[in-house]
## 1
Amino acid sequence: MAGFGRLNAAVLGGVLCVTTAICSGGALGASLDQTTAIADFLSTYEKSVAMIMTVRQDFDYVTPWKKLPMSRGVGTGFVIEGDRILTNAHNVANARYIEVVKQYEAKRYPAKVEFIGHDCDLALLSVNDASFFRDMVPLSFGGIPRVNSTVHTCGFPMGGRQLSITEGVVSRIEYGTYSHTQAHTHLLVQTDAAINPGNSGGPVLQDGKVVGVAFQGLQSADNIGYMIPTTVIQHFLTDVQSGGYDGFGTPGFSTFEGLHNPFYKAFLRIPSEISGVVVTNVVRGGTAEGVLQKGDVLTRIDDFDIDNDGMIRIYGLRVDFSEAIDIRQIGQTVEIGFYRNGEPRTADLKVALNAPLLAWARQYDIEPKYHLYAGLTFVTVSRNYLETWGRNWPVEIPFPLRYLFFHANDIIDDPNRKEFVVVSEILPDEVNAYVSGFKNQVVQTVNGMTINALEDLRLAFEKDIDGYWIVCFMNNDSPMIIDAQTARQRHAEILERYNVPAASN
């Protein structure tokens, strides 16, 4: 809406409190007009926005039969068609209990997650108590806002109990990383409207329509916030119409922008008028395997030509070519154009998750798998596990894990490998008194049986053998030796001593 100036508005006890930068002249009449405009804005949208209160409990990835202490959080959501509440996935991830609260009411309504997309940081909530939706007004969606246009963010920042509205200007629209998983990239919109803790999940409005969902800020800079655009929101809402959530497809291959170099372009025998990106790696087992190969030059996805920066033109914008896949649902097909050995080719590529061997993304709402034997806790390597080393984990983690995390999909050729298994923790006992040096090394074999997943390890230790368990590790010539008879004798006592409810999950 016009005429807001720079504002931060909140209704406190029925009194409108506004913090605003006064325009030149600072006329009292202008301030009163602005205050009236803000009051009208609040009265329009306060019946659409709700506070979300969550009790969450995260998993312990080192000793995964435990859970971390419970914590509480506050976020924002808003009502959409069908008596549903749209919010951020990070507001309700690992939730044990969720309540929603309407503006001006003390009553808390229990809610539950109907669908959640961690890859796009969106979730849909339902409330069984129909009275919650009485007098609530669902919001409708608009398009992608233009750069330099004005938007308004609604929410409950810093845990405040009254609705706040912040005005800002759209400054940039680009592809970027969604911080919830620290791995997935989608289109996002940058604004200078402050997006603080508690604002997350609130609607970003323009001309009475939702043009985004507030979801993250930039810690290193003031007044830089980001919203999820309606292209991503509509993909999520369309996806869940089937009764489940499949997610966003990924390319299933890596590229680099090598065609800026005319000599390299000539070496690849690519015509001078053709642009594109060079394929450097294809995800094993992904849908691009057998279609693309290293050294191919990708020039087109459907009707979107790819330039030498890996960009396409769409929505009147220039964004990463992955958007041509993002707009498709899982299971759909895109047509790709590419060059191989100097010859143009086309092929159909099925849109799929194409998950790499080692999960880059943070995981939520999934209990970590483990197997414990002879006091040795075996887990799968994941980002969640690596982040137990703290905020500076890429530097702090042991070198074998660091190398594995960043290069796993390039160095492992075995098509049967599904996971990497390591010893995360050792519960001290006489049977494992001398094996601490093997923590955080990748298990290769157990008594000659190749370990491609945690399930393989569980099956290996279930065998009834005499003598010793011989556990070999990747890039380590020294095996770990465990006396099999002692391990069997001590196993139950170790579980009881350390209050481990089950040896496996």
## 2
Amino acid sequence: MLKLKHLNENFELVKEILKRYWEHDTVGLDDMLGYYRISSNAIYPYRFQGEVCFLRLAPVEEKLKKNLYGEMEFIQYLAKNNYPALRPISSKSGDMCLDLHTPWGRYYVTSFRCVKGIQIAKTDKSSDIMYAYGKALGRLHTLSSAYRPNVKKWDHAEVLEWIHATLSEYEAPKCTFKEWKQIKASFDNLSIDTDNYGLIHYDFEFDNVFYDKNFCSVIDFDDGMYHWYTMDIAQVFDCIEEELSNSMIEEAKIEFLKGYRSEHCLTEEMQASYSLMQRFTNLYGYARLIRCVADQFDVEPDWMSELRIQLKSEMHSKEAKMN
């Protein structure tokens, strides 16, 4: 998540970027921009020739350049292999990623086309949908196993280093460092090969996967990293447990894994690591939150104060899982 100071909308900035760098429909633009959302990026919808597109912005200080360019390269690789995922839209200059100096600061900017289908979150999560959902992740991991990039995104070890540095900078409680040490030691004992480790999505949850006629399209590869593939599966399972009723959870997991195994292998060692992956997700999420809420302001809007309280509550919940 971006730092709190970056969570304000900036329609003036977005309009200026669209005007200078991307073709777009001016009619109805204000209405479209009103559907913006800001979390780990600022996402602003717009239309071009009637088609829904998205402009994505993030302050340069919030992102690693190699992760951004690595994301774009991976998405292009997926497109060449006919994998249904979001497609970048080149700017007027032909670039897919722009590094812009603006009156409001320096930003990385990209744009994407909307994918087909509806979010899995808005479906009935039937057996067929869960199977297609798992199949989409399995194929993604199979393609990742054969992927050899020019620009490589960061890996689990680099993320662990970032977590430790962030916990230290913001003086996190001792239990977080103990958790970090245990997770790192456990990771050091896991095997790594092309079948179980590669570039993962890291946010393959219901709101980032769209279902349409027995196949799924995927968006939001921003958080991807090199990690064990079971990380993606563990997060899917967390999502299933949070979103479905108790009577649906087990069948949903079974159908998801059937779909996954139809495209990619899943060993006993990989399955045994689910809880470890969930601990990593919890700790990484904690580090991102402690950084997000660190900035203090003499005067802040009510929505920011309320959000700060909510995020600190999430931090306490994550911290409790480490004790």
